[in-house]
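Troubleshooting entry. The earlier prediction with S-adenosylmethionine gave an output that would not parse, so I re-checked the input for stray whitespace and re-submitted. Clean input:
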Amino acid sequence: MSLTLKGRKVELLDHMQVINDLSNNSYDDAAKMAGDRIGETVSKGTIHRIARHYNKLKQKDASLTHMTEKSLRLGWACGRPMAKYKGAYPNGFLRRVDALMEVTDETKVLHLFSGSIQGRENEDTMDISEANNPTFVADARQQFPIETDSYDMVIADPPYDMQTTDGVKIDYSDKLWKTEYIKPYSWVKEAIRVLKPGGYLLALHHLVYIQPKGATRCGVVSITCGPNTRIRCLSIFRKHTAIEQKIASME
Ligand SMILES: C[S@@+](CC[C@H](N)C(=O)[O-])C[C@H]1O[C@@H](n2cnc3c(N)ncnc32)[C@H](O)[C@@H]1O
């Protein structure tokens, strides 16, 4: 289906100028610039439509390939977390992960941002808080104290926080964990590094994570825990094997 480009404001705008503005500005700023030019309010939706029509969407790879790429799409109805503290995994979540990823006693797993999780025999944990008694007490925003290509699976549950003082705002900081701001992608490169080639990264967040460099998306699982709880997303990526890394470096 081809997308048509109709509408009074769309027709008033100089499309090439809009595309040009977008190369250095956000949709919001481009909308403001376009509005100033025609003396009317222009929404960023209008700018987005123009950009899409000319195949010049910003973050095209991240947003459009997400819709078209072939990967598992699942929905899990988990129970509310049963732990006494807030922020624990949904009830039954790790059991479902084990089943989906076919985790066995041999699977070498790193629990990142592990909180209260105590890994099984073949599993390690990493958390900034010593009180959680992890295998590695470390800040995931920095280089991990772990060798490259060590794990079959890294499962991460980074903190994010909802703050309602000035409206609903998710700021990735921590009222709950009393730790500093975590940018959602600040730890991903290191998590990929410590995976064995062909190993899996699982990230539980309210964001659908962008596919990291050196890995391919293989699943998106929507996770609900019942009414009045936030939906979360488990993004699953597979680190490229040696041959895939070679091919990617040729592209
Ligand atoms: C959402 S909780 C994880 C809870 C865990 N899934 C559970 O069920 O208990 C986030 C964890 O990230 C840890 N954390 C916060 N900032 C961190 C950082 N910079 N590096 C490593 N861990 C961090 C916190 O100490 C907390 O234990």
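This one parsed fine. The domain at 67-250 is CATH 3.40.50.150 (Rossmann fold).
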